[in-house]
């Protein structure tokens, strides 16, 4: 059996933007797939896929959507219904019929609300030149608020002062329970009143979230397990391992587990392969360390789909860094194979693992293959530029 015939977990081995969306799309187009399961992050994901001239930046929908593969948002995902509805409209405009019918959501997933988003942006703006590089999508604020059970005003939780009396964190499942949802949103509104007040009232949000609940399938129990037993799953990670909440370089991290560990928990011990995605050079969006940063690399490889973000900051680039790659692999407890993207880049260099000056990298595919099998090779966000190999599995043999 091929390495990629069974369940596949896709993770980024950099600071994000490695090409995970194009890899997931290629995997779904190459093999029958029951579902794409999102296992971390939320609306801040931006996975670019191009198929037959159609382009979409996948955020909450799985990047297998153009291949007709349904998406399941697991309990580890932070769900933002406004952004999800907007993304569905864009997909429909792009030729995907009734995108929301392809979506299921675990009722235990946390709900990202306008309160979280406005608070996140207010905090990031207040940091001035010391910005963390937040996307401004409310991700960290959603997670932080969920950690405040029993906290009191003035207490410091995860390096942030509790500014009011917190309530229970709202979940997707609350969208079908208006009285529960209203109670939780009222508490959110009171808690964040000193920091930010969004334009939507609680009454408006309750009504809008009820509409959301009626438009998607909300699941309970082990939906991922049921899907896994029905057929092959592709697990799509968001952000990169070097931004992981435990393994990244704080404070320039995401409030999310970007390693394969959430996917492994969802699989419950079922066999799977982990595919680590990497470019042939290193990139980063916004503030934070990028040891091999190079203005020449940035100038040589302009981005069509990545640009400076209002909150996230500038797009940056540098040489491939062997030490950071090894660190990311270790944080994942190893991966089974690489997916290497942007193989069309030329004039590459790599910083050796000992930190010595960058050396020429004339054959990046051979360099990666000397470390691990290369199961997917690609040349950008277009499916036409991807090749899925028939690597043999050591797991399923």
UniProtKB/TrEMBL annotation:
<dbReference type="GO" id="GO:0044208">
    <property type="term" value="P:'de novo' AMP biosynthetic process"/>
</dbReference>
<keyword id="KW-0479">Metal-binding</keyword>
<feature type="binding site">
    <location>
        <begin position="16"/>
        <end position="22"/>
    </location>
    <ligand>
        <name>GTP</name>
    </ligand>
</feature>
<feature type="binding site">
    <location>
        <position position="17"/>
    </location>
    <ligand>
        <name>Mg(2+)</name>
    </ligand>
</feature>
<dbReference type="Pfam" id="PF00709">
    <property type="entry name" value="Adenylsucc_synt"/>
</dbReference>
<dbReference type="InterPro" id="IPR001114">
    <property type="entry name" value="Adenylosuccinate_synthetase"/>
</dbReference>
<feature type="binding site">
    <location>
        <begin position="342"/>
        <end position="344"/>
    </location>
    <ligand>
        <name>GTP</name>
    </ligand>
</feature>
<feature type="active site" description="Proton donor">
    <location>
        <position position="47"/>
    </location>
</feature>
<dbReference type="GO" id="GO:0004019">
    <property type="term" value="F:adenylosuccinate synthase activity"/>
</dbReference>
<dbReference type="GO" id="GO:0000287">
    <property type="term" value="F:magnesium ion binding"/>
</dbReference>
<dbReference type="InterPro" id="IPR042109">
    <property type="entry name" value="Adenylosuccinate_synth_dom1"/>
</dbReference>
<keyword id="KW-0342">GTP-binding</keyword>
<keyword id="KW-0436">Ligase</keyword>
<comment type="subunit">
    <text>Homodimer.</text>
</comment>
<dbReference type="GO" id="GO:0005737">
    <property type="term" value="C:cytoplasm"/>
</dbReference>
<comment type="pathway">
    <text>Purine metabolism; AMP biosynthesis via de novo pathway; AMP from IMP: step 1/2.</text>
</comment>
<feature type="binding site" description="in other chain">
    <location>
        <position position="239"/>
    </location>
    <ligand>
        <name>IMP</name>
    </ligand>
</feature>
<keyword id="KW-0460">Magnesium</keyword>
<keyword id="KW-0547">Nucleotide-binding</keyword>
<keyword id="KW-0963">Cytoplasm</keyword>
<feature type="binding site" description="in other chain">
    <location>
        <begin position="17"/>
        <end position="20"/>
    </location>
    <ligand>
        <name>IMP</name>
    </ligand>
</feature>
<dbReference type="GO" id="GO:0005525">
    <property type="term" value="F:GTP binding"/>
</dbReference>
<dbReference type="GO" id="GO:0046040">
    <property type="term" value="P:IMP metabolic process"/>
</dbReference>
<comment type="function">
    <text>Plays an important role in the de novo pathway of purine nucleotide biosynthesis. Catalyzes the first committed step in the biosynthesis of AMP from IMP.</text>
</comment>
<dbReference type="InterPro" id="IPR027417">
    <property type="entry name" value="P-loop_NTPase"/>
</dbReference>
<protein>
    <recommendedName>
        <fullName>Adenylosuccinate synthetase</fullName>
        <ecNumber>6.3.4.4</ecNumber>
    </recommendedName>
</protein>
<dbReference type="InterPro" id="IPR018220">
    <property type="entry name" value="Adenylosuccin_syn_GTP-bd"/>
</dbReference>
<feature type="binding site" description="in other chain">
    <location>
        <position position="254"/>
    </location>
    <ligand>
        <name>IMP</name>
    </ligand>
</feature>
<dbReference type="InterPro" id="IPR042110">
    <property type="entry name" value="Adenylosuccinate_synth_dom2"/>
</dbReference>
<dbReference type="InterPro" id="IPR042111">
    <property type="entry name" value="Adenylosuccinate_synth_dom3"/>
</dbReference>
<keyword id="KW-0658">Purine biosynthesis</keyword>
<comment type="similarity">
    <text>Belongs to the adenylosuccinate synthetase family.</text>
</comment>
<feature type="active site" description="Proton acceptor">
    <location>
        <position position="17"/>
    </location>
</feature>
């Amino acid at each position: 059996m091929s390495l990629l015939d069974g369940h596949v977990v896709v993770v980024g081995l950099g600071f994000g933007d490695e090409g995970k969306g194009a890899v997931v799309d290629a995997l779904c187009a190459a093999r029958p797939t029951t579902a794409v399961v999102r296992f971390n992050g939320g609306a801040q994901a931006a996975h670019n896929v191009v198929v037959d001239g159609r382009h979409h930046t996948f955020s909450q929908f799985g990047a297998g959507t153009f291949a007709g593969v349904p998406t399941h948002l697991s309990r580890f995902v932070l769900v933002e219904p406004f952004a999800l509805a907007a993304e569905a409209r864009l997909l429909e405009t792009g030729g995907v019929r009734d995108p929301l019918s392809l979506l299921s959501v675990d009722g235990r997933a946390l709900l990202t609300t306008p309160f979280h988003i406005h608070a996140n942006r207010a905090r990031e703006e207040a940091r001035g030149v010391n910005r963390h590089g937040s996307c401004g999508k409310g991700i960290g604020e959603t997670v932080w608020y969920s950690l405040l059970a029993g906290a009191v005003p003035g207490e410091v939780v995860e390096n942030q002062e509790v500014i009011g009396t917190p309530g229970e964190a709202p979940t997707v499942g609350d969208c079908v329970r208006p009285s529960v949802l209203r109670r939780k949103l009222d508490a959110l509104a009171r808690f964040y009143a000193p920091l930010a007040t969004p334009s939507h009232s609680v009454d408006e949000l309750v009504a809008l979230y009820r509409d959301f609940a009626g438009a998607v399938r909300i699941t309970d129990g082990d939906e991922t397990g049921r899907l896994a037993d029905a057929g092959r799953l592709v697990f799509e990670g968001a952000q990169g391992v070097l931004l992981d909440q435990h393994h990244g370089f704080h404070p320039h991290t995401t409030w999310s587990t970007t390693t394969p560990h959430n996917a492994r928990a969802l699989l419950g011990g079922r066999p799977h392969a982990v595919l680590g995605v990497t470019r042939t050079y290193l990139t980063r969006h916004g503030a934070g360390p990028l040891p091999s940063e190079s203005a020449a690399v940035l100038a040589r490889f302009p981005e069509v789909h990545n640009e400076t973000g209002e909150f996230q900051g500038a797009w940056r680039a540098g040489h491939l860094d062997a030490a950071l790659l090894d660190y990311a692999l270790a944080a994942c407890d190893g991966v089974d194979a690489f997916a290497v993207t942007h193989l069309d880049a030329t004039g590459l260099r790599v910083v050796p693992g000992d930190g010595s000056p960058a050396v020429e990298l004339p054959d990046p595919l051979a360099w990666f293959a000397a470390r691990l099998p290369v199961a997917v090779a690609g040349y950008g966000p277009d499916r036409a530029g991807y090749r899925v190999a028939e690597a043999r599995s050591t797991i399923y043999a």
